[in-house]
Amino acid sequence: LAAEEEAAKVLILLDAVRCPRVERQSDFNRQLQYFNDHLAKGIYAQYCWRYPHSFSAVREWVNRERKEYYLDGPNGADWIFYNEILRQREETIYVDYVENDGAHFWHDPRCTDELGLMPPSSRSPTLQLVSALSKAGCLKPGALHILAKVWRAQVIDERLTIHAIFDLNNKSLESLHAAGLLDTDDSDVINAIANRWLFPLYPLDLRKDRVSKDELRNIQRDWS
After folding, report:
1. Model's pTM, two decimal places?
2. Do 160 and 111 meet the contact criterion of CB atoms below 8 Å apart?
3. Rg of the chain over CA atoms, in angstroms?
4. Helices (H), 107-212
5. Which of the 8 DSSP states describes residue 69?
6. Angstrom distances, CA of residue 58 to CA of 80, 192, 195, 220
7. What value does the mean pLDDT take over residues 116-135?
8. Which pLDDT tens digit goes with each residue over 167-181?
């Protein structure tokens, strides 16, 4: 989890590079703030496990994941839960006295054998992607300049599809190769970047979306 958060910082900064400066200055400023935001880092880490077909699908997913509280259960509205990304992070780090839909209990970090049930970090797509970007030389100053030129010309909106992202990733790699800045010809590295570097998230608000528990309780009452 800690390694994925650190890798997410790299992706956050790369999205700042991909963000147009003049047209989207406010988005750029907000993007830099995500570097120290636990929820934003968690969203980036979870994002790499997904394969959305369009930017519209990305927006819908992000808006769900940033809710402070949400309803779930066998019937979809049985209980109120705290944000899943932040809850998982806190459970692996802190001892805490938890309130969950009126119930209170102590929680301590998961023990080592429980953590062993989680996917090995070597299989984490977040770490794999950042490692591939590094091996390809994409994080060097000259390469960042080329990536910025390719990506800032692209409008990121609801019409953008995963196929267009694949084409932009290949264009980025080809541009680096033409400039003599692509540091590898390893097909696994190239494919990881081409297939797993997803839509930029700089147009989206990744900060916690405050939710009133009273409103959720009203939904529960109306449902019941």
Report:
1. 0.86
2. no
3. 20
4. 112-115, 125-135, 141-152, 162-178, 187-196
5. E
6. 24, 19, 16, 28
7. 79
8. 999 999 999 999 999
